[in-house]
Fold each of these.
Amino acid sequence: MVKIISDTSTLYSTQEALEKGISIVPLNIIVEQHSYKDLDELSSSALLAMIKNKKIPTSSQPSLGEKQRLYAQESKKGEILDITMAQGLSGTYDSACLAKNLIDSNENIFVFNSKTLCGPHRALVDRANQLNQKGYTAAQIIEKLTPCVDSECSFLIPRDFSYLNRGGRVSNFEAHIGGFLKLVPTMKKSKDGSHLEMFGITKTFKKAIKNIIDEMRKQGVDASYTFYISHAFNEEEALKAQGWIEESFLGAKVIVFPLSPAFIVQGGPGCIAIQTIKM
């Protein structure tokens, strides 16, 4: 059997994943020099309360020491497959490679860059776990997951321009004008998963979703794909997006998730991620 490892980009807490036989090393949220493990030690509602109290949180990759200890423990039992959040959007992949290199006998440790995050990342980990239960090796699982990774595409709709400005995505002037005019920005994940790019700015949320759907169709997305909508305390708009996607891709599976604290830090309160992958 292969030990499947990942991080809270999957939107799994350590306990939820453990119930499926998966090990999770959480991302971290730092607030006023105090570090919290994503989902395990800090809930999304607690984070929102901190933000409302004018506290500015940041996020960081999983603990290198914790991952190294997990590798050392599990590599004695058999193969390890660590499916990480997208390299570039996080240092998680590079940190996992470093942890692997710190293990003396690491030939049975495989680190796989998912090139994605959140819903599709969760889908890849779930699929890996299913294949593991069927007796696939780590290399065979990676072979099965690779075309799925290539099919994935992701969009982010922030609802607060100040978070885009803080992340360097827009200038102070653009953030001020965008917020004043109540514009709706849309970011798109690059194909290699390394960064977010500005996709467009619209006057309405509905138009933003329409543009996303049109772009997905251009990329060959159809009802055989699974769609994921993740939100930061914005269930109302998330459910609207779900309805529009279901109307556009009849019979498609559309799943809605609340975002974890680590991703609320990145996208800001109210943000919505629209993602799809063919499994």
Amino acid sequence: MHVSPLETNVKVRNGRIQITNMTKANIVMRLVLWALLLFTLIGPFFLDYGTITWSTAISLTLGNLKMMFLEPAFHQITFATALKQISMTLALAFLATILGAVLSFFLAIFSAKNLAPSMVSNGIIAFNSFIRAVPTVLWVLIFAIVAGLGAIACVLGMMLHTIAYLTKAFAESFEELEEGTIEALRASGANWWHIVWHAVVPQSSSYMVSWIFLRFETNYGVAVAMGAAAAAGGIGFELFMASSFYYDLHEVGMITYCALIVAIILELVSLRIKRKLMAKS
């Protein structure tokens, strides 16, 4: 089929020919991105800075950054307290992830189009789309109104968004299973639960573990933020106290480094797990 040069964009990169179809969606997306870039560049010139002295503002900002990241230190809390609070943050993220993963598995097998009726599947997909459309932070704040500020609201909000997120991920992995395996089990007289436990779970376990750990990393970041916003405790609450109550920038920097180190460790563990799962598969 002949393709008009106006409809494609042919590029050669690293010896490979790349063809990009200039569809209406691509054109609209590029226009939106260019418009956002233009507004970002020219927007600061239309702001009213009033009586701000730029030299003083820049000097104070650099001084604050120096205190936070070049001179970190604990003053109000100890290193042992910081470790305890980080453990609490990890516990909140772990609890929300595990509870969400268990419930997501059962919702996923009823939302996978090759395992469940279309009416049930479409209903669960629509419900999950609504849950995912609302940010996790907002769900936590909604539960804080219902259940009160604290760890319970934090876990419930993260768990709800985790359920919607993992249900979609699990269902997509279930739908990628070979149809021949499922049909063979059905032909041999296996019931629906036998198909799930003997075909779906073994072939999708590596994907599920990978998605669960990815969501755990996300929930850790949310738990840090919600420690202050929803009074859930943990290292996020200590960060809020150091920055807003004590205004101790040295401690803010030290707490930030501690939270960052834990996030890097989680990322390294995640990469190692993914490599092992890929090697097994």
Amino acid sequence: MSYLDHLRSFVAVHRLASVTAAARSLGLTQPAVSGHLKALEARLGRPLFERAGRGIVPTASADALAARIGNHIDALETVLDGVATRGSELTGTVTIGGPAEFMTERGLPALAPLASRHIAVHARFGLARDLIGQLERGDFELVVAAQRIPRPAIAYQQLFTERFLLVGAPSFGDLIPATASAETIAATLEVAPWVAYAADLPMIRRFFRAGLERDLAPPETSIAPDLRAVRAMVAAGAGISVLPDYLCARAVAMGELVELWRPAVPVTNTVWLATGKSGRHPRVSLAIDLLRQAATSWGDA
């Protein structure tokens, strides 16, 4: 059991010669301080104060104890005050940009602990190139980017690696036979209905090129400019799609989606944290630490 609170109360009572005054100075109730003194006396096996009229006077043991620990208690109080002061310097706002889907599903929830430090988060969503440009102009302090766009004033560090999954509703579960050849898989997928977030099919084409070493020209594609909408449409049976694992792994585990085919070598992409090179506020460093800590489990999503 720790007796630090008991010693702190003891020093205050010894200096003020009053339990009531000590309780007031410590922000405690009088019974709490009296309880601390009784516990400390029980630990030492001797009384520390004696009643004298309406007040109390310290015993010789109390004087000796106060002389030995008073300065140490003061030093600890100074340390705690310093930590509290530095903590107050963190209060303020962190401005962050990133993809809407990632920030909603992963990024912003990971930053929730900032609230307990009185740090607010101001987030805006967009594409990597636009966000990095705004970071250069000082509109953001931190950006999560799905691609590394070289800029002289921007520093990058890897956040995590996302894996792309080819998914469909359970009704599409038998679309690709387990023993199908690459040619059969490509031919099957080229006539299947697709759902994508952009007309140029960037994520789908990347999956095809890396997984099947060929391009894709699907005849019919539904477009929804938000990967969460794509996920919802795919789960409803509107077609198949390629989605990052952080966005669909839970739906696959719950049976709402099925992984239709997995290439021998996973198709992946690095997600980056971008900041200015001219230095950053401790608030931003704290936000980065929270994101990196959370990212250690995102591969298991």
